[in-house]
Amino acid sequence: MNTFQQQLKSRFAVLGVIVLLVLGSLLVRLWSMQVLSGESYALQSENNRIREISLEAPRGRILDRKGKPLVTNRATLAVSVDPANDQVRKLIIHAQSEAKSDDPTRAEIESVFGGLADQLGMTPQEVFVKVADSQVEALRPRVVAIDVPLEIVSILSERQQEFPGVRIDEIAVREYPNGSLAAHVIGYTGEISESQFAASGEASGYELGDIVGKTGAEAQFENVLQGDKGRRLIEVNAQGKPQRVLDEQPAVAGRDIRLTIDIDVQKVAEAALVEALNEAHRQNFPKAKAGAAVVIDVKTGEVLAMASVPTYNPTVFLGGVSTDVWKKLNEKTSEYPLNNRAIMAAYPPASTFKAVTGLAGLQYKVTYSGKTYTCNGKWTDMGSQWPKWCWDHSGHGTISFDRGIEDSCDVVFYNIGYEFYKRKAEELQAFSRSFGLGSDTKIDLPGEVSGRVPDAKWKKAFNENYPEYQLWLPGDTVNMAIGQGDMLVTPLQMTTIYAGIANGGVVMQPHILKDVLASDGKVAKSFEPVVLADTGISDANLDIMRRALVRVTTQGTGASAFRGFDASVAGKTGTAEVKGKDDYAWFAAFAPATNAKYAVAVVIEQGGHGGSVAAPVGRNILAKLLGLPVETVHATDLSR
Amino acid sequence: MRRVERTRWKAVRDFANAPLFLATIALIIYGSIVVSSATSGMDGGPGLFKRHLLGIAVGLVPMIIAWAIDYKLLKHWTGPLMVALGLLLISPRIPGLGDSAGGATSWLQIGDMRLFQPSEPAKLVLIVAIAALIAEFEGKIDRPKDVGRILGYLGVAMVLILMQPDLGTGLIFVAITMTMLLVGGMKSRYFAILAVVGAVLIGAVLGFHVLADYQEDRLLVFVDPARDPRGAGYNLAQAKIAIGSGGVSGQGLGSGTQGNLHFLPERHTDFIFAVLGEELGFTGALLLLGMYLALLVTALAIAASSRDLYGALIVAGVIGMWTFQILENIGMSLGMMPITGIPLPFLSFGSSAMVTNLGAVGLLLSVWSRRYGT
User: Fold this and answer.
1) Does the CB of B345 have a partner CB in chain A at under 8 Å?
2) ipTM
3) What is the DSSP-derived secondary structure letter of residue A204?
4) I need a labelling partner for A634 at 20 to 30 A (CA). Which of A213, A334, B176, B269 fits?
5) What DSSP state is assigned to residue A315?
6) How far is B321 from chain A (nearest CA, A)?
7) A309: DSSP letter
8) DSSP secondary structure letter of residue A627
């Protein structure tokens, strides 16, 4: 070794140190990434390549009590727009921006959705609204149209580059074999709303964009109908293209349910309501546009038919309801067809309530069978400055309690009401409540209103800002006695009153669910009848009322509607005065009069007279149930 | 008999360097295994792997030639070597010969057939040329004039390489020159000055947008990977995920999902280390670093064995080249260095690089086999 090499030695040592430092620093970094943080990187690697796809569970069907389908499912081709597409995403981001100036222009929308809109017969703006306004989970394709004809589907899929982000998927949608029949009972489905989603919680497995029941039985029995989503883990490459399935958990279909509704009775009820509107128009009540009818089994509370007019067609909600249609469905001029008036609307019960007042009078011994009253048409017992009129201004003369029901004499019930007022114990209210009035019937449908049983406390609170109206007056009880004033009852509540009278004073809780079926079609769980209220009325008093109500349909205000009817019906007509509107027509009944099976209630808003407009609806519903001929009846009745 | 054998063995050892061979062969085999795995899932994968093996075979030719030639002869050819270097770096711009890829004009091709990247062998030409220049100062560089002359040579090469533009190779040129200046005895104050000037230059380059956009992007993404996760930062992020997810023992050869599912870009070339890291884990990476250590230590020993400064400088240049390429290539996959398209010696797919590295081994052997000469 010469000196030259000695001299270089230190320099090589420096170079060696540099080499060691380089390799050493790489080693340290590798140790930290692979050994210390390996698991976190492994997770990132999995997130890169593994995608979870949820598999839709077929929604359970809704059947009628005999198993006939009310709602089923069918497959359809849906045209969706993928929000991840660059052009589409740009539009959405602009539309979501706070600044108005960022909103995409007509031309921009046209350039992205123009072609698709042409094919679908929509405007580009409509397509854009469906894509941008959707509350679907951010990356999920937004359905723009369903039931797209095959030739358009083939154009869309063959010339994909002309239609940015467009994809075709086969999806399952609800099918309604009977059209709009029972639409209010079954309800419609739609994308889960943000509030529903937030309320559903993590464990429910819902994702934004999922189809859920929005109203009616679809919403009420969502848990049963929905089923459990499956999931599939797939491996994708960097382009997002699926490579293989790693794991799959199949979806569990939702359960089928049977409702207590009988399709055939429902059809009769809906047709009879429409007929009643026509009849009202013929009788010079042109404002009659809406009404409801309910019939239940008095022993079980099963709802055999529940109809509400005007109605709607639930198919308009498939694939997302358009803004125009939605607006129309929620307008006053269209009479709010989405409302199920049988449970969502409360009306003054008018004379149909006299059965309750009468029973209260008997039960509290304010009156008795055969007690006579004098009706001069004008009633001045509260003082001549506060006269009340009978609907028959010429007066009924000397009239018994029982005839008072038959002819619906107001004066008889003014007397009873006034007696109750003088007793100062609000017994009429308490008695009304013993039927369940003023509270929900607890029917298994969403949106029920509870009506109102007015009393002194209520009046004071209601007129909080009007001290002069806060005092409960004799006239309040007197009005209530004939079902006017502040008393409010839903058609379903009215049905339960008559069902209670028919069923020995025991009111069964009305319900719509008959049973839940297992996947093999066998009954998995049945609804057991529940007592809603026990009025405790004596059999003797019930008997008095029953006999009087039968005479209503044979000789009284309902006789015309039940002419030639081959079964004994105990019923009551009613004609409610509503300020600023034409009279509301009521009819409530149970049949057969002895050993009754069914109770029915009908209301026609601004339909005029109960006996000539509402009673024929009740007649035909009962006819269908009792196996009697269903026929068009033109009845006359000028009572109120 | 035993004496004769020992003598014969000594003759072989005088001529060939067993540790260098072992390290080189080990790296080439290891590299081939990883390249085979990286290319297996690619379009035309088997074809690519065959080309990799062909590159190794072709590389034996320059290795043997360099080994056979006495490196000392090159000492007198500084001028022509610099001309050759210039021609190499300009050649891709000659109409009918060049081709551009990735924004750079760095390929020689005839018709549609790509021949090689001239910038690869240019590194070796730079080493022998500048080593000859430095050797003239006999181990002591203290005059600014001398430093200037050496940097002038480097400067010419830098201008030409940056015109392609190929920043990565330019940085290798700098690393090679600095290593040789260290061994050539440049005073440390000059290193300090150069470091300051370098830092100022980098600042100026970024400040005045001298670099191509994609190069500037890569540099900035290195500073802040979240800048553009789908663009330049995406590559880095995916490489880090691949390496990190390898863990201690790796996911198994051929089973790396980052590579096979195309999340890793350039996985058989620039990001070959990410494939190795993902599939063979820390253990596999440790093995590779061990092989590099063996190679570089062997090279240092060869440098130390050289009788003359010129030989030592050539070996130092090769050491500088390899060390920097290892640091830059692995470092960029680990997020320690900016992303540049520098191949990992003996590992990355790419015949130009393989041929050049085997040529470098030939230079080392040339120095080793002549360590007893005058």
Assistant:
1) no
2) 0.92
3) G
4) A334
5) G
6) 11
7) E
8) T
